[in-house]
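Supplementary Note 3. Input sequence used for the single-chain structure prediction.
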Amino acid sequence: MRRLATTLATLAALAALACATATPARSSPEDELRALDALWARMYATHDTAAAGQLYDAGLEFVSANGRTKTKLQEMDDVRAQPGLVMNYFRSTPTVVRVSGDSGFVAGAAAWRFTMNGQPRDVLRAYEMMYLRGGPLGWRIVRVRMGTVP
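The predicted structure, written as C-alpha coordinates, is reproduced below.
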Protein backbone atom coordinates (compact mmCIF):
# COMPACT_ATOMS: atom_id res chain seq x y z
CA MET A 1 0.00 0.00 0.00
CA ARG A 2 2.86 2.34 0.84
CA ARG A 3 4.41 1.66 -2.57
CA LEU A 4 1.14 2.57 -4.33
CA ALA A 5 0.91 5.84 -2.39
CA THR A 6 4.51 6.71 -3.33
CA THR A 7 3.86 5.91 -6.98
CA LEU A 8 0.68 8.03 -7.04
CA ALA A 9 2.48 10.93 -5.34
CA THR A 10 5.29 10.72 -7.89
CA LEU A 11 2.83 10.68 -10.80
CA ALA A 12 0.94 13.64 -9.36
CA ALA A 13 4.19 15.60 -8.96
CA LEU A 14 5.21 14.82 -12.53
CA ALA A 15 1.79 15.87 -13.84
CA ALA A 16 1.96 19.14 -11.89
CA LEU A 17 5.45 19.81 -13.23
CA ALA A 18 4.33 19.13 -16.80
CA CYS A 19 1.39 21.52 -16.42
CA ALA A 20 3.56 24.22 -14.87
CA THR A 21 6.19 24.08 -17.60
CA ALA A 22 3.87 23.57 -20.57
CA THR A 23 3.61 26.66 -22.74
CA PRO A 24 0.10 27.34 -23.95
CA ALA A 25 -0.24 27.46 -27.71
CA ARG A 26 -0.28 31.04 -28.92
CA SER A 27 -2.44 32.02 -31.80
CA SER A 28 -0.93 33.97 -34.65
CA PRO A 29 -2.22 37.47 -35.47
CA GLU A 30 -3.77 35.95 -38.61
CA ASP A 31 -5.66 33.42 -36.46
CA GLU A 32 -6.84 36.26 -34.23
CA LEU A 33 -8.24 38.10 -37.24
CA ARG A 34 -9.96 34.94 -38.51
CA ALA A 35 -11.63 34.58 -35.10
CA LEU A 36 -12.72 38.22 -35.17
CA ASP A 37 -14.05 37.73 -38.70
CA ALA A 38 -16.25 34.92 -37.35
CA LEU A 39 -17.37 37.19 -34.50
CA TRP A 40 -18.19 39.90 -37.05
CA ALA A 41 -20.54 37.55 -38.91
CA ARG A 42 -22.05 36.16 -35.70
CA MET A 43 -22.83 39.64 -34.34
CA TYR A 44 -25.07 40.36 -37.33
CA ALA A 45 -26.73 36.94 -37.15
CA THR A 46 -27.51 37.37 -33.44
CA HIS A 47 -27.91 41.19 -33.30
CA ASP A 48 -25.04 41.40 -30.80
CA THR A 49 -24.54 45.14 -30.43
CA ALA A 50 -22.22 44.63 -27.45
CA ALA A 51 -19.76 42.72 -29.65
CA ALA A 52 -20.18 45.29 -32.44
CA GLY A 53 -19.44 48.07 -29.98
CA GLN A 54 -16.18 46.39 -29.02
CA LEU A 55 -15.14 45.34 -32.51
CA TYR A 56 -15.93 48.52 -34.43
CA ASP A 57 -13.61 51.48 -33.89
CA ALA A 58 -15.18 54.79 -32.86
CA GLY A 59 -14.00 56.29 -36.17
CA LEU A 60 -15.31 53.42 -38.30
CA GLU A 61 -15.82 54.10 -42.01
CA PHE A 62 -18.28 51.57 -43.43
CA VAL A 63 -18.87 51.75 -47.19
CA SER A 64 -21.88 49.76 -48.41
CA ALA A 65 -22.05 48.07 -51.81
CA ASN A 66 -24.18 50.99 -53.06
CA GLY A 67 -21.43 53.46 -52.08
CA ARG A 68 -23.19 54.82 -49.02
CA THR A 69 -20.75 55.63 -46.21
CA LYS A 70 -21.84 54.98 -42.64
CA THR A 71 -20.38 55.77 -39.22
CA LYS A 72 -20.12 53.32 -36.34
CA LEU A 73 -23.42 54.55 -34.89
CA GLN A 74 -25.18 54.19 -38.23
CA GLU A 75 -23.80 50.68 -38.77
CA MET A 76 -24.82 49.69 -35.25
CA ASP A 77 -28.41 50.26 -36.39
CA ASP A 78 -27.92 47.49 -38.97
CA VAL A 79 -26.66 45.14 -36.26
CA ARG A 80 -29.64 45.75 -33.95
CA ALA A 81 -32.78 43.65 -34.06
CA GLN A 82 -35.58 45.41 -35.93
CA PRO A 83 -39.33 44.84 -35.99
CA GLY A 84 -40.24 42.48 -38.82
CA LEU A 85 -36.66 41.25 -39.31
CA VAL A 86 -35.77 37.58 -38.96
CA MET A 87 -32.13 36.68 -39.60
CA ASN A 88 -31.72 33.15 -40.92
CA TYR A 89 -27.92 33.32 -41.06
CA PHE A 90 -24.94 35.54 -41.71
CA ARG A 91 -21.71 33.81 -42.77
CA SER A 92 -18.33 35.09 -43.80
CA THR A 93 -15.56 33.32 -45.65
CA PRO A 94 -12.25 35.13 -45.38
CA THR A 95 -10.02 34.37 -48.35
CA VAL A 96 -7.20 36.82 -47.60
CA VAL A 97 -5.81 37.52 -44.13
CA ARG A 98 -2.66 39.62 -43.85
CA VAL A 99 -0.93 41.29 -40.93
CA SER A 100 1.84 43.86 -41.06
CA GLY A 101 2.88 45.25 -37.72
CA ASP A 102 -0.16 46.77 -36.04
CA SER A 103 -2.35 46.64 -39.16
CA GLY A 104 -4.45 43.79 -40.45
CA PHE A 105 -6.41 43.19 -43.63
CA VAL A 106 -9.17 40.66 -44.24
CA ALA A 107 -11.03 40.14 -47.50
CA GLY A 108 -13.59 37.56 -48.45
CA ALA A 109 -17.25 36.91 -49.15
CA ALA A 110 -20.23 37.32 -46.85
CA ALA A 111 -23.59 35.68 -47.38
CA TRP A 112 -26.72 36.24 -45.40
CA ARG A 113 -30.38 35.33 -45.58
CA PHE A 114 -33.11 37.23 -43.82
CA THR A 115 -36.82 37.84 -43.96
CA MET A 116 -38.12 41.38 -43.60
CA ASN A 117 -41.85 41.80 -43.12
CA GLY A 118 -42.48 38.38 -44.63
CA GLN A 119 -40.25 38.95 -47.68
CA PRO A 120 -37.22 36.60 -47.83
CA ARG A 121 -33.94 37.88 -49.21
CA ASP A 122 -30.53 36.35 -49.93
CA VAL A 123 -27.48 38.62 -50.10
CA LEU A 124 -23.94 37.85 -51.24
CA ARG A 125 -21.23 40.49 -50.95
CA ALA A 126 -17.48 40.77 -51.22
CA TYR A 127 -15.88 42.56 -48.27
CA GLU A 128 -12.57 44.10 -47.27
CA MET A 129 -11.79 45.11 -43.71
CA MET A 130 -8.90 46.99 -42.21
CA TYR A 131 -7.99 46.31 -38.59
CA LEU A 132 -5.69 48.14 -36.19
CA ARG A 133 -4.32 46.68 -32.98
CA GLY A 134 -6.01 47.85 -29.82
CA GLY A 135 -9.41 47.93 -28.25
CA PRO A 136 -11.04 45.47 -25.88
CA LEU A 137 -10.69 42.53 -28.31
CA GLY A 138 -7.04 43.16 -29.22
CA TRP A 139 -7.94 44.43 -32.69
CA ARG A 140 -10.57 46.86 -33.93
CA ILE A 141 -12.15 47.32 -37.34
CA VAL A 142 -11.51 50.80 -38.70
CA ARG A 143 -12.76 50.39 -42.27
CA VAL A 144 -15.18 48.08 -44.07
CA ARG A 145 -15.87 48.11 -47.79
CA MET A 146 -18.69 45.96 -49.12
CA GLY A 147 -18.98 45.23 -52.82
CA THR A 148 -20.72 43.03 -55.30
CA VAL A 149 -19.33 39.59 -55.96
CA PRO A 150 -17.90 39.33 -59.46
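The two ends are 74 Å apart (CA to CA). Confidence is low (pLDDT under 50) at residues 4-22.
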